[in-house]
Design goal:
heterodimer, A: alpha/beta, 5-stranded mixed sheet, globular, B: alpha+beta, disordered N terminus
């Protein structure tokens, strides 16, 4: 994890394991943003650590793979400050303290950032390997565009 | 062992209880339980996390690569793998790491104990005792407790970052020591947080001590490291409460691994085929006298005796060990001076070496053979959850026998809780959980 610096610019974090198929979709989004000189970070720690990264931040965008049963590549968007994240929606991370748990725990502890948007991109294959499924790959550019709109780029 | 449950005298009954996805454990597994006429007909704890073949793909790699490759086995306890592999390579090549470099190794291992123990105890295990679904429910009723736990876990991560370069999969450790020694100012900056950590872990231990613990005891064969001078963490001999006292290299002569059809993880056992226990309770029972006075006082205040035979109390032992780990890290931080050399120089060569450290879940054994160029020809890694599997099944047997009258949902809960006593790391062991109970 990159050293955390309190930032006035939007804090964009992609969660997931690029070596587990569609779980790497957020990493692919981060790579596209970086290529356009937009600061964005991959995150490979657990949910508790994720909470630490956004304490005191203003605008935060989190991207993760989703596993809700929707068609592959479906884009889900949550405004976490005003709506709860559904349970059993995102891929669970280590010891099942994942993005949804981190967001809901932060809400209870009053540690949510000022404005938190969570994107979930529906995956289908979470097996070993670094290749994204075609429908998931196709969704990457859409998410990049939406995030750029979110941050006014 | 628990008393045998009385046989049902009424009509024959049968029930199957399934836990299809065990939550709050690391990795994928299941439990199938079949109860017939009030007796356990079949009980299988299955691990179906796919095998990852680390031992096979280490072959042909350079000796110096083993710590970084094996650390990828686990995101919670990478230090256990880095250090077990490093010790084994140093053993093979006739090198010993001592003095301040060894102190730094002990200190970073304390960091791993703190982050791993607190995550499990407060976030994953505590909800079981409060009959809550998850830590979120604890946060709703006691936000200060959860904030303390999160801050304590972060302290563990901070130690890893200062000494290891980053909190997850540290990059600064190597065979022979470190790439770069941490700055004195960075290590000394941990002193005040560690003083807070000692008090915070004591508070959590005492708070968890008020839980209602299920009535269950087991006469465990406890296997752990033992060190002549200190509560063993990163080095020592392998001992048991049955009189075993062997150097690490003799581990394969006393312990076996067996493939069982229902699990992707090998089952560990003694050479007599018996289950044995590794982890916090085994360490506590074997090495209680070597804990600090203050950690022993916390154990007493939390309701523990000098010996712990109730696996549900492992949550208390974890918090006592967390306090001790904060104390040890503080002791080392206070006197830390930057050493002149960051590592001992290694010369590649032929040999076989063994390494064993106390991962948060118990002893983790490594053995490697090297050719004359220092390339790995053979690798064997025996992680703690593989060793505990047979004991977990034995605990489940005893627990179910004692609770046959419970309704399926309650019994299911109790089974899951029994498994979580072990903080099982299934991805490490895969070499874990759906739970199925059948009664007929």
């Amino acid at each position: 994890m990159t050293k955390i610096v309190k930032s006035k610019t939007p804090w964009i974090i992609g969660v997931g394991n690029p070596l587990r198929g569609d779980d790497g979709v957020a990493a692919a989004v981060i790579a596209h943003l970086k290529a356009e000189d937009i600061p964005a970070y991959e995150f490979d720690g657990d949910g508790a650590e994720l909470m630490e990264t956004w304490v005191g931040q203003g605008r935060v965008i989190v991207i993760d793979a989703a596993s809700s049963g929707a068609p592959a590549g479906t884009l889900h968007r949550f405004e976490a400050n005003v709506e709860e994240l559904p349970k059993n929606f995102f891929r669970h991370s280590t010891h099942q303290f994942g993005v949804a748990e981190a967001v809901e725990m932060a809400r209870v502890l009053n540690q949510l950032p000022g404005h938190l948007t969570v994107y979930g991109i529906e995956g289908v294959d979470f097996g070993f390997g670094s290749r994204l499924s075609p429908d998931v790959e196709a969704a990457v550019q859409d998410v990049v565009q939406q995030i750029k709109t979110d941050i006014g780029r | 062992m628990t008393k045998k449950a009385s046989r049902s005298t009424s009509r024959p009954t049968s029930r199957r209880i399934k836990v299809d996805a065990l939550s709050r454990v690391e990795g994928e597994g299941a439990l199938d339980l079949h109860i017939q006429n009030g007796e356990i007909k079949d009980l299988k704890f299955r691990i179906f996390e796919p095998p990852r073949f680390f031992e096979a793909f280490l072959q042909g790699r350079d000796f110096s690569e083993a710590p970084d490759i094996t650390s990828r086995i686990c995101g919670i306890c990478p230090i256990a793998y880095i250090m077990g592999a490093s010790h084994a390579m140093e053993d093979a090549l006739g090198v010993e790491v001592t003095g301040p470099l060894n102190d730094l190794r002990r200190m970073i291992y304390c960091g791993e104990w703190i982050e791993s123990h607190v995550l499990h105890a407060a976030m994953l295990h505590a909800p079981d005792f409060l009959e809550l679904d998850d830590a979120l429910q604890i946060a709703k009723s006691n936000p200060e407790l959860v904030k303390t736990a999160l801050q304590l876990k972060k302290l563990g991560n901070d130690i890893l970052e200062v000494i290891g370069g980053r909190a997850v999969h540290p990059v600064n450790l190597k065979v022979g020591g470190f790439y770069k020694v941490p700055r004195k100012s960075a290590v000394r900056a941990l002193i005040e947080p560690l003083k807070w950590g000692i008090e915070a872990s004591r508070e959590l231990a005492v708070a968890f001590g008020k839980f209602d613990f299920p009535d269950f005891d087991y006469d465990y064969t406890c296997v752990s490291l033992k060190h002549e001078k200190e509560y063993a963490i990163h080095e020592g001999r392998i001992v048991s409460n049955r009189g075993l006292d062997i150097p690490v290299r003799d581990f394969p002569n006393h312990f076996l691994e067996e493939h069982v059809a229902h699990s992707n993880a090998l089952h560990g056992m003694t050479k007599d085929g018996e289950a044995y226990l590794v982890g916090p309770i085994a360490r506590y029972n074997n090495n209680f006298d070597q804990l600090s006075k203050t950690a022993r006082a916390t154990a007493k205040a939390a309701g523990l005796g000098n010996i712990c035979t109730n696996p549900f109390q492992s949550i208390l032992v974890r918090m006592v060990e967390t306090q001790y780990a904060c104390e040890e890290a503080l002791r080392i931080a206070k006197t830390y001076e930057e050493p002149d050399a960051s590592c001992v120089k290694m010369v590649p060569g032929k040999g076989t070496g063994h390494g064993c450290t106390e991962a948060p879940r118990g002893i983790c054994y490594h053995r490697y053979s090297l050719d004359k160029k220092g390339l790995i020809t053979r690798a064997t890694i025996v992680p703690p959850t593989a060793q505990n599997q047979k004991q977990i099944e034995a605990d489940l047997h005893g627990m179910v026998e004692k609770n046959l009258t419970l309704a399926d949902e309650k019994l299911k809960w109790r089974c899951e809780q029994t498994i979580r006593n072990y903080d099982p790391c299934i991805s490490c062991a895969t070499h874990f959980l759906k739970l199925n109970i059948t009664r007929d």
